[in-house]
Prior knowledge:
Layout: E1 4-10, H1 14-24, E2 28-35, E3 40-47, E4 50-57, H2 63-71, E5 74-81, H3 85-94, E6 105-106, E7 112-116, H4 118-121, E8 125-129
Parallel strand pairs: 1-4, 5-8
Antiparallel strand pairs: 1-5, 2-3, 3-4, 6-7, 7-8
Amino acid sequence: MKSIDHIGIAVNDLNEAIEIYKNILGFNYLGKETVEEQGVRIAKFDCNGVHLEFLEPISDNSPIKKFLETKGPGIHHIAYKCDNIEQKIESLKKKGVKMINEKPKQGSNNTLIAFLHPKSSIILTELVQGG
């Protein structure tokens, strides 16, 4: 893995997060995006090359909605950049890592993503290729 791509933060109100991080704290706001497949609307901010992605659920079956119901707002996952996501998934599986996604899925900003199960990585971990 090359570096941290972003830190995902679950929120109930995306507009409130934008107000705080853009207008009060002064972070560089990169815009909003909806990722239907993941059931989220995302607001992105840049923090010296590391992105903060605030995630608001858009459906009742969104993993973010379930997270918010059980744990409340807060850090949901850390994402790491990788060059070849399929090769990385296979390598991790050979090492006994439990994957949530054994095949890459479409992520935001034309990326491919896959999640490691938190039982194998302490915190929910995302692999990101592209973007």
